[in-house]
Design brief:
It is a single chain. The protein is mainly α. It has three domains: 105 residues, Tetratricopeptide repeat domain (Serine Threonine Protein Phosphatase 5, Tetratricopeptide repeat, Alpha Horseshoe), CATH 1.25.40.10; 94 residues, no CATH class; 39 residues, no CATH class. 67% of the residues lie in helices and 0% in strands. It contains 20 helices and no strands. It is flat and about 65 Å long. It starts with a helix and ends with a helix.
Protein backbone atom coordinates (compact mmCIF):
# COMPACT_ATOMS: atom_id res chain seq x y z
CA UNK A 1 0.00 0.00 0.00
CA UNK A 2 2.82 2.39 0.79
CA UNK A 3 4.36 2.16 -2.66
CA UNK A 4 1.48 3.76 -4.55
CA UNK A 5 3.56 6.88 -5.18
CA UNK A 6 6.25 4.78 -6.86
CA UNK A 7 3.77 2.94 -9.06
CA UNK A 8 2.17 6.19 -10.20
CA UNK A 9 5.59 7.71 -10.90
CA UNK A 10 6.58 4.83 -13.16
CA UNK A 11 3.25 4.72 -14.93
CA UNK A 12 3.16 8.49 -15.37
CA UNK A 13 5.99 8.43 -17.88
CA UNK A 14 3.98 6.34 -20.23
CA UNK A 15 5.10 3.84 -22.82
CA UNK A 16 8.79 3.32 -23.34
CA UNK A 17 10.30 2.39 -26.67
CA UNK A 18 10.04 -1.12 -28.04
CA UNK A 19 12.43 -3.77 -29.29
CA UNK A 20 12.33 -5.29 -32.75
CA UNK A 21 10.05 -8.09 -31.54
CA UNK A 22 6.40 -7.39 -30.77
CA UNK A 23 5.84 -8.66 -27.24
CA UNK A 24 3.10 -6.13 -26.53
CA UNK A 25 0.34 -8.68 -25.82
CA UNK A 26 2.46 -10.64 -23.36
CA UNK A 27 3.70 -7.49 -21.64
CA UNK A 28 0.15 -6.12 -21.37
CA UNK A 29 -0.96 -9.32 -19.65
CA UNK A 30 1.98 -9.05 -17.26
CA UNK A 31 1.20 -5.41 -16.50
CA UNK A 32 -2.42 -6.32 -15.74
CA UNK A 33 -1.19 -8.97 -13.31
CA UNK A 34 1.20 -6.44 -11.77
CA UNK A 35 -1.57 -3.85 -11.40
CA UNK A 36 -3.59 -6.50 -9.57
CA UNK A 37 -0.64 -7.24 -7.26
CA UNK A 38 -0.35 -10.72 -8.73
CA UNK A 39 3.44 -10.54 -8.59
CA UNK A 40 4.10 -14.25 -9.23
CA UNK A 41 2.05 -14.30 -12.43
CA UNK A 42 3.55 -11.03 -13.65
CA UNK A 43 7.09 -12.26 -13.01
CA UNK A 44 6.46 -15.53 -14.86
CA UNK A 45 5.13 -13.72 -17.93
CA UNK A 46 7.89 -11.10 -17.97
CA UNK A 47 10.62 -13.67 -17.44
CA UNK A 48 9.38 -15.56 -20.51
CA UNK A 49 9.55 -12.42 -22.63
CA UNK A 50 12.99 -11.42 -21.34
CA UNK A 51 14.36 -14.91 -21.88
CA UNK A 52 13.51 -14.59 -25.58
CA UNK A 53 14.34 -10.86 -25.92
CA UNK A 54 16.40 -9.69 -22.91
CA UNK A 55 16.79 -6.21 -24.36
CA UNK A 56 13.08 -5.48 -24.70
CA UNK A 57 12.84 -2.12 -22.88
CA UNK A 58 9.13 -2.40 -22.09
CA UNK A 59 9.50 -5.84 -20.54
CA UNK A 60 12.68 -4.80 -18.75
CA UNK A 61 10.98 -1.72 -17.33
CA UNK A 62 8.02 -3.73 -16.09
CA UNK A 63 10.31 -6.35 -14.54
CA UNK A 64 12.43 -3.64 -12.89
CA UNK A 65 9.23 -2.12 -11.50
CA UNK A 66 8.27 -5.50 -10.06
CA UNK A 67 11.68 -5.98 -8.45
CA UNK A 68 11.51 -2.48 -6.98
CA UNK A 69 8.10 -3.12 -5.44
CA UNK A 70 9.60 -6.23 -3.82
CA UNK A 71 12.60 -4.27 -2.52
CA UNK A 72 15.00 -6.05 -4.88
CA UNK A 73 16.84 -2.96 -6.04
CA UNK A 74 20.01 -4.60 -7.36
CA UNK A 75 17.95 -6.99 -9.49
CA UNK A 76 15.88 -4.09 -10.80
CA UNK A 77 18.99 -2.21 -11.91
CA UNK A 78 20.48 -5.34 -13.46
CA UNK A 79 17.39 -5.86 -15.63
CA UNK A 80 17.59 -2.27 -16.90
CA UNK A 81 21.35 -2.50 -17.44
CA UNK A 82 20.71 -5.36 -19.87
CA UNK A 83 18.85 -3.00 -22.20
CA UNK A 84 21.37 -1.87 -24.83
CA UNK A 85 19.96 0.64 -27.30
CA UNK A 86 20.99 3.59 -29.44
CA UNK A 87 17.55 5.16 -29.08
CA UNK A 88 18.15 8.38 -27.11
CA UNK A 89 14.56 8.52 -25.89
CA UNK A 90 14.70 5.00 -24.50
CA UNK A 91 18.09 5.73 -22.88
CA UNK A 92 16.63 8.81 -21.22
CA UNK A 93 13.59 6.98 -19.87
CA UNK A 94 15.67 4.05 -18.64
CA UNK A 95 17.99 6.48 -16.82
CA UNK A 96 15.01 8.08 -15.09
CA UNK A 97 13.73 4.73 -13.93
CA UNK A 98 17.17 3.90 -12.55
CA UNK A 99 17.02 7.18 -10.64
CA UNK A 100 13.62 6.25 -9.20
CA UNK A 101 14.96 2.87 -8.08
CA UNK A 102 17.87 4.56 -6.30
CA UNK A 103 15.46 7.05 -4.73
CA UNK A 104 13.27 4.26 -3.40
CA UNK A 105 16.44 2.71 -1.94
CA UNK A 106 17.24 6.11 -0.36
CA UNK A 107 20.52 6.27 -2.30
CA UNK A 108 20.16 9.96 -3.09
CA UNK A 109 23.62 10.32 -4.58
CA UNK A 110 22.99 7.59 -7.14
CA UNK A 111 19.45 8.89 -7.78
CA UNK A 112 20.87 12.28 -8.67
CA UNK A 113 23.64 10.76 -10.78
CA UNK A 114 21.15 8.75 -12.84
CA UNK A 115 18.68 11.64 -13.08
CA UNK A 116 21.36 13.84 -14.60
CA UNK A 117 21.88 11.34 -17.42
CA UNK A 118 18.20 11.60 -18.37
CA UNK A 119 16.61 14.28 -20.53
CA UNK A 120 13.19 13.88 -18.91
CA UNK A 121 11.83 16.99 -17.22
CA UNK A 122 10.89 15.03 -14.12
CA UNK A 123 14.52 13.88 -13.85
CA UNK A 124 15.62 17.52 -13.73
CA UNK A 125 13.10 18.20 -10.97
CA UNK A 126 14.40 15.19 -9.05
CA UNK A 127 18.03 16.31 -9.41
CA UNK A 128 17.06 19.80 -8.25
CA UNK A 129 15.21 18.48 -5.20
CA UNK A 130 18.19 16.40 -4.15
CA UNK A 131 20.42 19.46 -4.58
CA UNK A 132 18.01 21.45 -2.39
CA UNK A 133 18.11 18.72 0.23
CA UNK A 134 21.90 19.13 0.25
CA UNK A 135 21.63 22.94 0.50
CA UNK A 136 23.03 23.41 -3.01
CA UNK A 137 20.62 26.16 -4.04
CA UNK A 138 22.54 27.53 -7.04
CA UNK A 139 22.89 24.03 -8.45
CA UNK A 140 19.14 23.46 -8.01
CA UNK A 141 18.40 26.67 -9.91
CA UNK A 142 20.59 25.46 -12.78
CA UNK A 143 18.52 22.28 -13.13
CA UNK A 144 15.15 23.94 -12.60
CA UNK A 145 15.75 26.51 -15.32
CA UNK A 146 15.96 23.66 -17.85
CA UNK A 147 12.58 22.14 -16.94
CA UNK A 148 9.75 22.37 -19.43
CA UNK A 149 6.59 20.48 -20.27
CA UNK A 150 4.04 19.60 -17.61
CA UNK A 151 6.58 20.12 -14.81
CA UNK A 152 7.40 23.70 -15.73
CA UNK A 153 4.94 25.24 -13.27
CA UNK A 154 6.45 23.26 -10.39
CA UNK A 155 9.91 24.41 -11.42
CA UNK A 156 8.69 28.03 -11.48
CA UNK A 157 7.38 27.74 -7.92
CA UNK A 158 10.72 26.45 -6.72
CA UNK A 159 12.57 29.17 -8.63
CA UNK A 160 10.40 31.88 -7.14
CA UNK A 161 11.23 30.69 -3.63
CA UNK A 162 14.93 30.37 -4.44
CA UNK A 163 14.97 33.92 -5.79
CA UNK A 164 13.85 35.18 -2.38
CA UNK A 165 15.57 35.60 0.96
CA UNK A 166 17.04 32.89 3.17
CA UNK A 167 13.63 32.02 4.64
CA UNK A 168 12.10 31.45 1.21
CA UNK A 169 15.09 29.34 0.19
CA UNK A 170 14.78 27.27 3.37
CA UNK A 171 11.11 26.76 2.58
CA UNK A 172 12.02 25.52 -0.91
CA UNK A 173 14.34 23.03 0.77
CA UNK A 174 11.52 21.86 3.04
CA UNK A 175 9.28 21.36 0.02
CA UNK A 176 12.01 19.26 -1.60
CA UNK A 177 12.46 17.20 1.55
CA UNK A 178 8.77 16.37 1.53
CA UNK A 179 8.90 15.44 -2.17
CA UNK A 180 11.83 13.14 -1.41
CA UNK A 181 9.76 11.56 1.38
CA UNK A 182 11.88 12.73 4.29
CA UNK A 183 8.66 13.68 6.02
CA UNK A 184 9.88 14.22 9.57
CA UNK A 185 12.75 16.51 8.57
CA UNK A 186 10.47 18.43 6.19
CA UNK A 187 7.93 19.04 8.96
CA UNK A 188 10.59 20.20 11.41
CA UNK A 189 12.06 22.51 8.77
CA UNK A 190 8.70 24.09 7.99
CA UNK A 191 8.01 24.62 11.68
CA UNK A 192 11.02 26.91 11.86
CA UNK A 193 10.72 28.70 8.53
CA UNK A 194 7.18 29.14 7.18
CA UNK A 195 6.26 31.91 9.61
CA UNK A 196 9.06 34.08 8.22
CA UNK A 197 8.56 33.45 4.51
CA UNK A 198 7.62 36.56 2.56
CA UNK A 199 3.93 36.26 1.66
CA UNK A 200 4.60 37.28 -1.95
CA UNK A 201 6.96 34.30 -2.31
CA UNK A 202 3.96 32.01 -1.81
CA UNK A 203 1.69 34.08 -4.07
CA UNK A 204 -0.03 35.61 -1.04
CA UNK A 205 -1.51 32.20 -0.27
CA UNK A 206 0.08 31.93 3.18
CA UNK A 207 -3.05 30.51 4.81
CA UNK A 208 -3.27 27.76 2.18
CA UNK A 209 0.35 26.79 2.76
CA UNK A 210 -0.16 26.66 6.52
CA UNK A 211 -3.25 24.47 6.22
CA UNK A 212 -1.42 22.16 3.82
CA UNK A 213 1.57 21.73 6.12
CA UNK A 214 -0.57 21.40 9.24
CA UNK A 215 -2.45 18.55 7.54
CA UNK A 216 0.87 16.97 6.60
CA UNK A 217 2.10 17.29 10.19
CA UNK A 218 -1.07 15.60 11.42
CA UNK A 219 -0.63 12.86 8.83
CA UNK A 220 2.86 11.98 10.11
CA UNK A 221 1.76 12.04 13.76
CA UNK A 222 3.33 15.38 14.67
CA UNK A 223 0.38 17.26 16.19
CA UNK A 224 2.60 19.72 18.07
CA UNK A 225 3.93 21.16 14.82
CA UNK A 226 0.41 21.24 13.39
CA UNK A 227 -0.74 23.23 16.42
CA UNK A 228 2.22 25.58 16.08
CA UNK A 229 1.45 26.24 12.43
CA UNK A 230 -2.26 26.83 12.98
CA UNK A 231 -1.51 29.32 15.77
CA UNK A 232 0.57 31.55 13.49
CA UNK A 233 -0.54 35.11 12.94
CA UNK A 234 -2.61 35.50 9.79
CA UNK A 235 -4.01 31.97 9.77
CA UNK A 236 -7.78 31.56 9.55
CA UNK A 237 -9.60 30.59 12.73
CA UNK A 238 -11.58 27.39 13.14
CA UNK A 239 -14.73 29.51 13.05
CA UNK A 240 -13.86 30.94 9.65
CA UNK A 241 -12.32 27.87 8.00
CA UNK A 242 -13.79 24.40 8.47
CA UNK A 243 -10.47 22.86 7.42
CA UNK A 244 -8.79 24.38 10.47
CA UNK A 245 -11.62 23.10 12.67
CA UNK A 246 -11.23 19.58 11.25
CA UNK A 247 -7.48 19.65 11.80
CA UNK A 248 -7.96 20.81 15.38
CA UNK A 249 -10.32 17.90 15.99
CA UNK A 250 -7.77 15.47 14.55
CA UNK A 251 -5.06 17.01 16.74
CA UNK A 252 -7.24 16.53 19.82
CA UNK A 253 -7.67 12.84 19.02
CA UNK A 254 -4.02 12.22 18.17
CA UNK A 255 -2.97 13.93 21.39
CA UNK A 256 -4.86 11.23 23.27
CA UNK A 257 -8.39 12.57 23.68
CA UNK A 258 -10.03 10.42 21.04
CA UNK A 259 -13.53 10.95 22.45
CA UNK A 260 -13.02 14.70 22.43
CA UNK A 261 -11.76 14.65 18.85
CA UNK A 262 -14.72 12.53 17.81
CA UNK A 263 -17.12 15.02 19.41
CA UNK A 264 -15.43 17.91 17.61
CA UNK A 265 -15.77 16.13 14.27
CA UNK A 266 -19.41 15.30 14.92
CA UNK A 267 -20.08 18.96 15.75
CA UNK A 268 -18.81 19.86 12.26
CA UNK A 269 -21.47 17.82 10.48
CA UNK A 270 -23.30 20.16 8.15
CA UNK A 271 -20.40 22.63 8.30
CA UNK A 272 -17.59 20.62 6.72
CA UNK A 273 -18.22 18.43 3.65
CA UNK A 274 -19.27 14.91 4.57
CA UNK A 275 -16.45 13.35 2.58
CA UNK A 276 -13.89 15.56 4.35
CA UNK A 277 -15.17 14.42 7.75
CA UNK A 278 -15.13 10.80 6.60
CA UNK A 279 -11.54 11.07 5.40
CA UNK A 280 -10.50 12.92 8.56
CA UNK A 281 -11.81 10.09 10.73
CA UNK A 282 -10.14 7.43 8.59
CA UNK A 283 -6.84 9.30 8.59
CA UNK A 284 -6.97 9.84 12.35
CA UNK A 285 -7.50 6.11 12.94
CA UNK A 286 -4.50 5.28 10.76
CA UNK A 287 -2.29 7.89 12.46
CA UNK A 288 -3.34 6.69 15.92
CA UNK A 289 -2.49 3.12 14.97
CA UNK A 290 0.96 4.25 13.81
CA UNK A 291 1.72 5.50 17.32
CA UNK A 292 0.20 2.55 19.13
CA UNK A 293 -3.12 4.16 20.09
CA UNK A 294 -6.66 2.88 19.61
CA UNK A 295 -8.86 4.91 17.29
CA UNK A 296 -11.49 2.25 16.69
CA UNK A 297 -14.22 4.43 18.21
CA UNK A 298 -13.93 6.59 15.07
CA UNK A 299 -14.70 3.73 12.68
CA UNK A 300 -18.50 4.08 12.90
CA UNK A 301 -19.95 5.30 9.61
CA UNK A 302 -16.77 4.77 7.61
CA UNK A 303 -17.02 3.01 4.27
CA UNK A 304 -15.12 2.13 1.13
CA UNK A 305 -11.45 1.38 0.74
CA UNK A 306 -10.27 4.25 2.95
CA UNK A 307 -12.57 3.10 5.75
CA UNK A 308 -11.52 -0.51 5.25
CA UNK A 309 -7.86 0.46 5.43
CA UNK A 310 -8.49 2.39 8.66
CA UNK A 311 -10.28 -0.62 10.16
CA UNK A 312 -7.45 -2.88 9.03
CA UNK A 313 -4.87 -0.62 10.69
CA UNK A 314 -7.03 -0.63 13.83
CA UNK A 315 -6.81 -4.46 13.80
CA UNK A 316 -10.50 -4.86 13.05
CA UNK A 317 -10.25 -7.10 10.01
CA UNK A 318 -13.87 -8.25 10.02
CA UNK A 319 -15.12 -4.67 9.91
CA UNK A 320 -12.59 -3.90 7.18
CA UNK A 321 -14.01 -6.71 5.05
CA UNK A 322 -17.52 -5.34 5.55
CA UNK A 323 -16.44 -1.88 4.35
CA UNK A 324 -14.18 -2.72 1.43
CA UNK A 325 -15.30 -1.88 -2.10
CA UNK A 326 -12.11 -2.80 -3.93
CA UNK A 327 -11.51 -6.33 -5.22
CA UNK A 328 -7.75 -5.88 -4.93
CA UNK A 329 -7.87 -4.65 -1.34
CA UNK A 330 -10.40 -7.32 -0.41
CA UNK A 331 -7.94 -9.90 -1.74
CA UNK A 332 -5.25 -8.26 0.38
CA UNK A 333 -7.43 -8.43 3.51
CA UNK A 334 -8.08 -12.08 2.87
CA UNK A 335 -4.36 -12.77 2.68
CA UNK A 336 -4.28 -13.38 -1.05
CA UNK A 337 -1.60 -10.89 -2.08
Amino acid sequence: MALGWLMSSWLFFGGIGCSGTDNSAEIMEAEKALAGNDFANAETKLAAVLQATPQDPKAATAMAHLHTLKGEYDQALAVLDAVQTEDATVQSQIALRKALIALQNKDFSKAKEKALTSNEDFAKILAAEISLMDGEYEEAVEYLEKVGGSHKNLAKKYLKLLDGDEWSQAYAEAQALWALRDFDLAIQSVAGTLEFVNKSAVDNQFNEHVVLWASRAVGVANPSVAEQLLSMKGVSSAKDDWRVAVLQAMITAINGDVAGGKSQLEALEGVAPAQALHDAKATTVVVLSSIGKDGSSLLGGLRGTSGAYAAYKANDKSRALDMVDSDIFEQFLEGGL
